[in-house]
Amino acid sequence: MVNVLLVEDNPGDARLAVEALREGGAKVQLHLAQDGVEAMAFLKREGQHSDAPRPNLLLLDLNLPRKDGREVLAEVKNDPQLRRIPVVVLTTSQAEQDVMSCYELHANCFITKPVDLDQFINVVKTIEGFWCQTVKLPPR
Predict the structure, then answer these.
(1) Could you tell me the CATH number of the domain that includes residue 39?
(2) Which DSSP state fits 4?
(3) SS3 breakdown of the chain: % helix, strand, coil, rounded to 5?
(4) What are the C-alpha distances in Å from 140 to residues 25, 45, 98, 108?
(5) What is the secondary structure of 61-76 as a DSSP string?
(6) Does residue 139 fall inside a structural domain?
(7) What confidence tier does 26 reach under pLDDT thresholds 50, 70, 90?
(8) C-alpha distances in angstroms, 42 versus 20, 33, 34, 129?
(9) Using 50, 70 and 90 to split pLDDT, how confident is the model at 24?
(10) Residue 28 has pLDDT above 90, yes or no
(11) In which domain, by residue range, is 17 found?
(12) Number of domains the chain is built from
């Protein structure tokens, strides 16, 4: 079972990602955080997330309320307990500066969300296939 933390504030995009992951062939346990503060509480097992599983993969939007994705990415990659978790940035941004800054912060990949519904579902299925079925993820 692969535990995936999806950090997404757009309910429509979160719902589509959930559906796409359900249709994929991997056994995925999906957890959702709606902003960067909640994501860090989940990852650090704080507050209501004290019994949260350590995710094998983090799907991270950049434009989040309270704490944006860049801040979350920087915290994750600077924390010795979290830095091995692969981070896939999945965002609407196409800005070259965002791409560069995410890789400088050690994102494992950067994907721009397609605006087309079918293409978005295909991208999520591709992420799931690669990260949950093809690669060997570090142990939790």
Answers:
(1) 3.40.50.2300
(2) E
(3) 45, 20, 40
(4) 21, 13, 28, 17
(5) -SS-SSS-HHHHHHHH
(6) no
(7) low
(8) 23, 8, 11, 24
(9) low
(10) no
(11) 2-134
(12) 1
Do 122 and 92 meet the contact criterion of CB atoms below 8 Å apart? no
Element (H, E) at 14: helix 11-23
In this predicted structure, the answer to whether residue 76 has a pLDDT above a threshold of 80 is: yes
> Is residue 23 pLDDT above 80, yes or no?
no
**Does the model's pTM come out above 0.70?**
yes
The residue-averaged pLDDT of 75-99 equals 95
Q: Give the pLDDT confidence score for residue 44 in this predicted structure.
A: 97
Exposed e or buried b for every residue in 31-58, given b needs 16+ CB within 10 A? bbbbbbebbbbbbbeeeebeebeebbbb
Q: Is 87 helix (H, G, I), strand (E, B) or coil?
A: strand
How many CB atoms sit inside 10 A of residue 21's CB? 22
Residue 140 lies in a domain: no
The answer to whether residue 22 scores a pLDDT higher than 80 is no
* Amino acid (one-letter) located at 68: D
Alpha-carbon distance 27 to 77, whole Å?
26
